[in-house]
Specification:
The strands form six sheets. The protein has a five-stranded parallel sheet, sandwiched between helices. It contains 22 helices and 18 strands. α7 runs parallel beside α17. It is α/β, with parallel strands linked by helices. The radius of gyration is 28 Å and the shape is elongated. It has a domain of 176 residues: Ribosomal Protein S5, domain 2 (2-Layer Sandwich), CATH 3.30.230.10.
């Protein structure tokens, strides 16, 4: 007899429906699976067999064939254990076939028949928005699954319970989540607040501009000046997350098995800081069935690369597509998977090998040639994606001993949100563009137009500082964001004057090349 159980699986962040077809017929006893299952699906044979026996059901000594359709998409994981087991029970009339109608089932089984939680359930169930279908998911994932909105969700904790629920012998309460209620509980708490950071006004201001216009930042400074602390404070001044963004982050964390226990909705902007030994796969994503990398885990938050010059050049080059496109596509034999990569990149480096160039208290021991070589370790294409370069110097004695608290993150965030609002309005007719950092040449011409006097001022600055063409547009974009922070429609001279300050790396590089 043939039983069909609806289930679902994942391709990247997208869920898709899978039909689990179970045929039980006479002939030599055997258990076969077709439809491109990977190793873990094959292992599920053993779990399903044991779980059925240990739940008090009969495992039929017959020919069992399981087909997972569509066959041409690679499927992974143990999510099909429970649908396969229920399919076998239905095909052998231990539960009626009709019990499976209108149900979508996912769940891993343990040998004793318990249903274990899965990664990626929210994304899986989001594939189906169908009010006539009901989901059976692992008990521990039911709250997460219910976040998907209009779906009806039941959490089951064992094969036995699932079978009894389907046949009406036991009742399970539907899992309800009032998403607007848990989402309104919005005040996310971040690890570092701007008011905790002493001094470094210039770097803090650069981060405010970065947050307002979604600009990437390079911080240059000697070791121990608080670059990491500054980077960690950035999420706290970014605008509050929208529900859509929250759900996307939650899906990504769910797929990666990183959802904090008991908290199925991630309400904080991520902060990811991979070590400089990170491989391309861990940064960009990878594996036979590609998993999200750091660039995706940082989506809607911050990716912090400390000691930038220590990263493998190839690894940094791989950042170009995610930075350029806001997404990354990883191709494999059976599937190409696309993940979002919308993050602000914060990078940090020492000014030279020994770290003390431009330090008033310790002398730099590097030769100009070594400094130039050190600085040019960062590739041009990556630098092109970084709008703001800011120095993070060693604090002076007075600054260290100043106990006056700075502005709180909440205060700065208000200005950032106001500037973002201006940008949303500005770019409302330009799909895919939300922030000043995303402007191309054409949009820069349109939205960064200078009046005659300001234009003349920019020309003078440009020539006297010997700025490159590459920097021309970058400075205009930053000036646009600074003007937005002030609520200015027009970019003013002092907006431009501030914008040209954020090129500390270029300055160091130019100096080192003059002397070498
Ligand atoms: Zn040095």
């Amino acid at each position: 007899m043939l039983a069909i159980v609806n289930s679902c699986s994942l391709l990247g962040l997208k869920g898709f429906n899978v039909k689990v077809e179970v045929d039980v017929s006479g002939g030599l006893p055997g258990f076969h699976m077709v439809g491109l299952p990977d190793t873990s699906v094959r292992e599920s044979r053993e779990r399903v067999k044991a779980a059925i026996k240990n739940s008090g059901f009969k495992f039929p000594p017959k020919q069992i064939t399981v087909n997972l359709a569509p066959a041409d998409i690679r499927k992974e994981g143990s999510a099909f254990d429970l649908p396969i087991a229920l399919g076998i029970l239905a095909a052998t009339e231990q539960i009626p076939l009709s019990a499976l109608e209108g149900k979508i089932v996912v769940g891993e089984l343990s040998l004793n028949g318990d249903v274990r939680p899965l990664n990626g359930v929210l994304a899986m169930v989001s594939a189906t928005e169908n009010e006539t279908m009901e989901f059976l998911v692992p008990q521990q994932n039911s709250y997460e699954a219910a976040l998907s909105g209009s779906n009806t969700v039941y959490g089951v904790s064992s094969l036995n319970e699932a079978a009894h629920f389907l046949t009406g012998k036991t009742e399970i309460p539907q899992t309800h989540v009032d998403i607007s209620e848990i989402f309104s509980d919005q005040e996310a708490r971040y690890e570092v607040d701007m008011e905790q950071i002493k001094g470094q006004e210039s770097a803090k201001r650069a981060l405010e501009i970065a947050a307002a216009g979604n600009h990437n930042v390079l911080m240059v400074g000697p070791p121990g000046t608080g670059k990491t602390l500054l980077a960690k404070a950035l999420p706290s001044i970014l605008p509050g997350l929208t529900l859509e963004e929250t759900l996307q982050i939650t899906k990504i964390y769910s797929i990666s098995g990183l959802l904090p226990e008991g908290i199925p909705l991630v309400k904080k902007r991520p902060f990811r800081a991979p070590h400089h030994n990170a491989s391309t796969a861990s940064l960009i994503g990878g594996g036979t069935i590609p998993k999200p990398g750091e660039v995706t885990l940082a989506t809607h938050g911050v990716l912090f690369l400390d000691e930038l010059t220590e990263f493998d050049r190839k690894v940094l080059d791989a950042l170009r597509q995610p930075l350029e496109d806001g997404s990354v596509t990883i191709s494999r034999v059976n599937a190409a998977v696309t993940y979002p990569t919308n993050f602000i990149l914060i990078t940090a480096m020492n000014p030279c090998n020994c770290g003390f160039l431009s330090d008033p208290e310790r002398e730099c021991t590097c030769t100009p040639y070594a400094i130039s070589r050190y600085l040019t370790k960062i590739s041009g294409p990556l630098l092109d994606r970084i709008d703001l370069q800011v120095e993070v110097p060693r604090l002076k004695y007075e600054e260290l001993h100043d106990y006056k608290k700075g502005e709180t993150s909440a205060e700065i965030k208000k200005r950032v949100e106001a500037a973002r609002k201006i940008q949303r309005e500005r770019f409302k007719d330009y799909p895919g563009v939300e922030c000043n950092s995303q402007m191309d040449g054409e949009l820069i011409n349109k939205f960064c137009a200078l009046d005659k006097n300001t234009e003349e001022f920019y020309k003078q600055v440009f020539d006297s500082l010997k700025l490159s063409i590459r920097m021309h547009n970058r400075i205009l974009k930053i000036a646009r964001t600074i003007a937005d922070l002030e609520g200015n429609d027009k970019i003013s001279e002092h907006n431009l004057a501030e914008a040209v300050q954020y090129r500390d790396y270029d300055r160091l590089l130019a100096d080192s090349q003059v002397f070498s």
